[in-house]
Amino acid sequence: MAEFNNVSIAKAANVLFDGNITSRTIVFPDDSRKTLGIMLPGEYELNTVHKEVMDIQRGTLEVMLPAEDWVKFEGPATFEIPANSKFKLRVHSLVDYCCSFIKNKI
For residue 106, is pLDDT > 70? Predict the structure, then answer.
């Protein structure tokens, strides 16, 4: 999907690691959320609350998911991150990404 329609976009950016990772939250009519962002080269460790699906539009990075080895991705590519986990990133070139948050249905 190249574009999203009928969404709300947060004015304020999510800024992490002194601006090396930035994103904006978009909210869909069904209240699901995604972030659209940029990652600059560097090494980072992040946490999840919900399961996340990362769609890399362009750029190159390596990801270390819980109990796994480093895996390299070059956009376009997609990978999933489990809920309630930590993961590491080695970003090799500017990464343009879309992150989808998958909430468990109760």
Answer: no
